[in-house]
Amino acid sequence: METIKVAVLGLNQGAKAARDAVESPRFDLVAVAGFGDQAEALAEEVNAPLFHDYEELLREVDLDAVIIALPNGLHLPATERALAAGIRNIL
Q: Which of 64, 69, 79, 81 would be a feasible disulfide site paired with 10, CB 3.0-4.6 Å?
C-alpha cells in the first residue's frame, strides 16, 4: 500500500496530528507549517521541513492530503488555497 503524503498546517493544535502521522505506516509527513520556537522544535522532532508560510508549502510540496490545524478564522482561506493547489483530501 502506498503511503499518503500529508502536511500539517498549524503546529500548536496540529502537533499531535504531526506526531501521529509520523507514527502511522499509512502516512508520510512531508512538511509542516508554523512559526516560533515550538514549531521549530516539533519540525525537528518529526524530521519534517518547516515552512513559516503555509501558502508557500502548498505551492512547493507535492501532497495527497493536508491537515489544517490553524486558528478558526484561517480554516476557510487555507481550505480554499489547498483546493486551488489540487489537494482534495483535507481535514
A: 69
